[in-house]
Design goal:
single chain, alpha+beta, 5-stranded antiparallel beta sheet, 5 strands, 40% helix, 13% strand, binds zinc ion
Length: 192
């Protein structure tokens, strides 16, 4: 993006305060504002003050900072709005649904049956394609981290399938007397 285009970036102006917005948090690196097209009430956009488009362009320091902000804002949203959780969402690239030229991190307050369509439906991939993916990905991850990661020995597809089937068959752990699952407890703990 040219400097001129950057000067026209709406989200740079929102982050700097040149364009007014309903701000919920600010520090030297980010501003967090209510989304004007919220998925649910309290939907927050965390906007880096530096103009970056996608996460891979960011400094590790900024990415770490965004992680911390996600945690703290999630807690604040859950407590203030009496919701049961948050979805933390980033679209890196147009294909992923990114519309703004400026990186945005969405923190969306969630409640059961709130109708937000973020459910991921599993793609049907065969064993060969999964193995091809892992063969491409593992060396690239190693390169990214500057370490040599050895590929694990490939399990025979049949053995792997049988294992997966077996684990599916395993009966669920008996529910505790109060009928609450571990996730129910986490939800309650978050709201406290
Ligand atoms: Zn910008």
């Amino acid at each position: 993006m040219s400097e001129e285009e950057q000067q026209q970036c709406v989200f740079c102006h929102i982050a700097s305060g040149k364009i007014p917005a309903k701000k919920v948090y600010e520090d030297d690196k980010v501003a967090a504002v209510l989304d004007i097209n919220p998925a649910t009430s309290g939907h927050v956009l965390v906007i880096p003050k530096e103009h970056v488009s996608v996460m891979p362009q960011m400094s590790e320091e900024l990415v770490a900072h965004l992680g911390m902000i996600s945690k703290q804002l999630s807690f604040a949203l859950i407590r203030a709005l009496k919701v049961e959780g948050t979805s933390v969402f980033v679209a890196n690239g147009v294909a992923a649904g990114q519309r703004a030229p400026h990186f945005l991190l969405h923190i969306i307050p969630r409640s059961a049956n709130d109708g937000v369509a973020l459910q991921l439906l599993p793609a049907k991939l065969d064993e060969k394609s999964v193995n091809e993916t892992i063969a491409k990905l593992v060396p690239a991850v190693g390169k990214q981290f500057g370490v040599d990661i050895k590929l694990p020995a490939v399990e025979k597809p049949k053995a792997k399938l049988e294992k997966a089937e077996k684990s599916k068959e395993k009966p669920e752990k008996p529910k505790p007397a109060d009928g609450k699952s571990e996730l129910d407890r986490i939800t309650e703990m978050l709201a406290k």
